[in-house]
Queue: 2 jobs
Job 1
Amino acid sequence: MQTTELLAPLHAQMTAWRRDIHAHPELGFQETRTADLVARQLDAVGIEVHRGLGRTGVVGILRVGTSPRSIGLRADMDALPVQEANRFAHASRHPGVMHACGHDGHTAMLLGAATHLARTRQFDGVVYFIFQPAEEGLGGARAMLDDGLFERFPCESIFGMHNRPSLAVGRFAVRAGPMMAGGAFFDIEVTGKGAHAARPQSGIDTALVAAQIAVSLNSIVARNVPPVETAVLSVTRIQAGDTYNVIPHTATLGGTVRAFSREVMSLVETAMRRVATGTAEAYGAAATLDFRENFAPTVNDAAQAEFAARVCSELVGAENVDRQPPLNMASEDFSFMLERVPGCYINIGNGMGEGGCEVHHPGYDFNDEALPLGAAFFVRAVENKLPLGG
Ligand code: NI
């Protein structure tokens, strides 16, 4: 029987977990209810539970047989500060918080796989189920690593997945090498001299300086980054002043940078510092740049990507596994785990559904039809990596 069929009995259970988590979304590092649900279910099927890694993270350990070989499987648990627009029964009950990225589905799939593996035990080795908090820019993966994730739970390889609405249900996408961009957030603070707006000669206008900096920053990707490399620099906020007749004393700019290599990221940071301070100086103002690299580029190990693609092909047929998906400029903090342990991050088809929503949209919902397939991937990854009699 196909593994997806074997997981069919858990479909209703996974759907119930998924909708329960969707109705009770929690922001990064506040996933206490979600972590409780995960820990309770792991415990109920006899999986050893460790809590509090990266504050609200949970790790389950399932040992079968005598082999010391190991594998890590990871899902994220946090929601986004988005007001849900959906009106269905499992819509968010927490105003302004929503599972708009499908982490509710990721958690339910890994919990389903853990439940199945604990019951069937068709492998020889150690599985670490890693339920990570705070993926959405708050540093959950790094928090778990700082708490000794891989020292306490040494994984030989690690796998994770994200749903993709533009990919049909029943399909996977797997890519070796760089897959998603690294991401940094930045703030630039400009200090000038406040004055009466009718007497500009006695002040230094930070609104004007901030505008010039924003324009000049756009030259960095065009003129400093090598054309064969890829980078994005977006200024997403500019704030200065409170009223009509005062030249603002200070101004701030903020935004994000994305790139597929650490080298390009640091090149952009250096150029930004030069442009921001140099432009401010030209107007008699001063500027400081705070540049925070929140995400490393997500880079899949070639051999583990090959392995993941083989598992996907076994489940849905090679014709339903996209081996050359386009590079994704979004970021993912599983990247920090992949820097430490060889592994692979894959995409699972979510389908567009009604209304055609991408992730982070207020009308998005994870597609429950994908649950058995995602869980089956985790199950078969374990059974292939840690074979009986291997
Ligand atoms: Ni996400």
Note: The pocket of nickel (II) ion is lined by residues 101, 103, 162 (CB under 6 Å).
Job 2
Amino acid sequence: MPEESPYANVVLIGFMGSGKTQTGRSLSQRLGLRFTDTDALIETRAGKAIRRIFEEDGEEAFRVLERSVILEAAGETGQVIATGGGVPANPDNMVTLKRSGCVVWLQASPESVWERVREGQERPLLAVEDPQGRIRELLRIREPFYAQAHLAVDTSGKSVPEVAGEIIELLRAYHS
Ligand code: S3P
């Protein structure tokens, strides 16, 4: 039996490699909600991988597509929404998402982000000479945006089921 959820949407934000997709999937099963991944939706709408959108159309075009997908996802209810790491850096996206549900920030240290993303090739923003420096820099720039979430969970050293369980407890306390 899914655990009951009284919320329109639960929205996960946070840096690349903070576990938004995996945690979102687990949380959606436990809460009996649908799962929406905005990066996957962008790839469906564009008909190509995010890496190719960056290569062929540039980051600005990607952000325009991202904004339209955020509006689309926020227009529905009954979902856990996992977002791309750059979504909150557009203040309009945060306004839209905070109106559509409870926004939860998955916090991760630069070290744990690096551990989780170092094997992958699919993140164009980290395809640079010094990816660890880039992670620290982007985290510093983005933290004030992430901090506007309703709730925050530290994911460092925790498993996906642990993080999902903590979010469920926080949601209960927040709405009681
Ligand atoms: C991005 C994060 C990625 C993806 C794109 C840009 C970012 O999503 O949207 O590569 O700006 O931080 P994840 O956070 O799911 O890796």
Note: The chain has a mean pLDDT of 94.
